[in-house]
Amino acid sequence: MNEAALRAGIDRIEIHELLNRYAHAIDFADWELLDRVFTEDAVADFSSVGEYVDVDSVLHGRDAIVAYYKVALAPFQGVLHFMTNHLVELDGDSARCRSYMHVLNMSMGGIYTCRCRRTSAGWLIEHLELDERSFDEAADRLRSHMTAVESRN
Question: What pLDDT, in 10s, does the model give residues 98-111?
C-alpha cells in the first residue's frame, strides 16, 4: 500500500471518530467535547427541524451551536442517536461527509451532510446540515405503494 492510500485511510478513520464524538457529545450533553468537534467559525443548519425549537436554526460559530444544543435538546434528555453509513470524500485538508442518523427513541432521523477541515487539533466540522426524515411518512408511502400493487394482482 502506498503512503497516499495509507494517509487517506487514516483520515477516514479520524473523520469517522469525529462523527462518533459529535453523537456522543450531544447524547451525553458533553458541551465541552464539542470543542473537539466543531471549528470555532463553524456553521450549523438545522432548518429542517427549526419548527421544533424556538430559536434560530442556522447558527454561526461554535459558541452559538453549543447554545442551540443546550436549548434544543433540553426536552430530549436520554435520547440516543445512531449515525451510520458515513460516506467520506477527501480533498487534501478538507472533506465532505454524508451520514445517516436515526433517533433511537423516535421514528425520526435524517441525513447529516458536513464539510470537515484538517486543523492543528485534527479533523473538525466546519459546516453541518441536517435534513430531517420521518420514518412514519416513509413507511406510509411504502405501505400505500405495496397496497396499490397488491390490489392490481
Answer: 999 998 877 788 99
Residue among 5, 2, 1 nearest 90 (CA): 5
Residue 145: closest CA among 133, 108, 137, 106: 137
Pairing verdict, β 122-134 and 38-45: parallel
Q: Kindly list the structural domains of the chain, giving each domain's residue range(s) and its CATH number in brackets, ordered by start.
A: 3-152 (3.10.450.50)
CB-based contact 112:98 (threshold 8 Å)? yes
Q: Taking the complete model, does pTM exceed 0.70, yes or no?
A: yes
Q: Which long-range contacts (CB under 8 A, 24 or more apart) does 43-49 make?
A: 43/126, 43/127, 43/128, 44/68, 44/127, 44/128, 44/129, 45/127, 45/128, 45/129, 45/130, 46/72, 46/129, 46/130, 48/110, 48/130, 48/131, 48/132, 49/130, 49/132
80 HSE (CA, 13 A, CB side):
3
> Looking at the predicted structure, is the pLDDT value of residue 20 above 70?
yes
Do 53 and 136 form a contact (C-beta atoms < 8 A)?
no
